[in-house]
Amino acid sequence: MTANQTPARFPSPATAFDDDLFSYYFSFFHDTAAASDPQPSSALPSPMEPNPNKRPREDDLSPSRLVALKPSSSSSSPPPVDDDAAEQEEAQAVPPTVQPGHRRLWVKDRSSDWWDYYNHPDLPEDEFRRAFRMCRATFDFLCDELGSAVAKEDTALRAAIPVRQRVAVCVWRLATGEPLRLVSRRFGLGISTCHKLVLEVCTAIRNVLLPRLLLWPAPSEAASAAARFEALSGIPNVVGAMYTTHIPIIAPKESAATYFNRRHTERNQKTSYTVTIQGVVDPDGVFTDVCIGWPGSMPDDQVLEKSALFERANSGLLNNQWLVGGGSYPLLDWVLVPYAQTNLTWAQHAFNEKIGEVQRVAKEAFARLKGRWGCLQKRAEVKLQDLPVFLGACCVLHNICETKGEEMDPELRCDVVDDEMVPENGVRSASAMQNRDSIAHNLLHHGLAGTAFL
Length: 454
What we know:
By secondary structure, the protein is α/β, with parallel strands linked by helices. The chain folds into 2 domains: 78-213, no CATH class; 217-445, no CATH class. It is 39% helix and 10% strand. It is built from 14 helices and 8 strands. It has helices at residues 113-118, 125-132, 136-150, 163-176, 180-187, 191-213, 219-233, 256-259, 262-268, 300-305, 308-317, 346-372, 387-403, 430-445; strands at residues 26-27, 64-68, 104-108, 238-249, 273-281, 287-295, 322-324, 335-336. It has a 6-stranded mixed β-sheet with strand order 1-6-5-4-7-8. Strands 2-3 form a two-stranded antiparallel ribbon. A hairpin with a 5-residue loop joins strand 5 and strand 6. Helix 12 crosses helix 14.
């Protein structure tokens, strides 16, 4: 297909909390996000001999082909097949004439015209970027980095799916949130193959790119971030802005009550189950820490307490430094939050305005994250144990796009609405309370709060 041709069009698409129930959870802040050894795939069963007299289904509009395989001895097992060859319907080779003693199976012809069009080197850059939320150079970088982790070898049955197509399936699925049956039609692959490719590429992103691209800032980088946040708000020693958002999921079969989000249900008038993403961003909106997977019934302060960030910060990671959070977080020695009382002094009101400017950096980063990766606006159709990898890949891809200056189309922007629940114990450090009062006083008396003190 040439660049002047138009691609095929497709239709658009609580009970008591038990920590043991959430053993799948992990924080991307820990070094445990390093690559884990892949599990060996189980042996594939031998293809069944089809009935040569069987007529195709009347409702199956896709053409089928009869493919002959190599003969096998009566005592030996079938020849080894790569994981993707389990989808026999994807066979690309022209079927040979079936000879006596050969095994046979029916496969379905699928068109890859859509992918061929978008993979053509003459495709306009703007059209590629609108489709995959990144320019071709960034996509090539992603393929180069993940190539060795996702590439497969050709088999006797067919050629392996190319790395670019594997990565494109994942990026398209994350970018659009399109149902797998439509992704299958676009790329000319089986539905289960597309689902498997998404998880494989997300796992490769976690193992290969996350340790390099989602890191807590080094001391020099933290000092630079503090200077930029101070220039923005006048508040010193702020190294990150923190925010927690909710991602809709399908109601789990077990412990569904813990994932039930009452506030989202009441606002949308639709039963809602969610998991949380807690993230810390730098002045550019790049994630430096994420904590993924805790259920939607948990308030933000409890999510923070269960994160690896909480443990490491209390161990001295944030020495004389602040993270800025909203009203749903407690005031700690390293977490700076706005005043929660109703009757505010002039200094307290000015302080809250400046805190809001820093908090806006994190909220806008999450708005770009959800806008660019549309799967986060729909119910995640993956298992709970796969959610941290699936959602974490979106955070890593967000960092890649942000650091490479990828612009996001204005029509993709979305509003981030997350209800803030004031914690029961909003002030947990007397020294932090004194430091906050001192910062508020200095902002006002040094004319950094919008109005000079007279």
